[in-house]
């Protein structure tokens, strides 16, 4: 069973390979079902990872603003999560038996 991100009844990401940083599971870009993701204008800055960009998630007409984030140009210390996507705001991450890479 893959590790999955689920929101509003839909699997929005699924993978057997992921990264864990500060307790958050980061999904590779290829694991993301982009039909549910809309780019956001929101950006935040982490002192060691760099500037994060956000996605708003939309499933069956329900919107979860800025519920996913990623680092398109991370600082060197976070290069392993470049473009990988993490979740919050009620998105459930179910870890399968796969190991973090």
From TrEMBL:
PANTHER family: DUF427 DOMAIN PROTEIN (AFU_ORTHOLOGUE AFUA_3G02220)
UniProt name for this protein: DUF427 domain-containing protein
Organism: Physcomitrium patens
Gene3D superfamilies reported for this sequence: Domain of unknown function (DUF427)
InterPro entries with a match to the protein in the record: DUF427, DUF427_sf
Record domain DUF427: where: 4-89
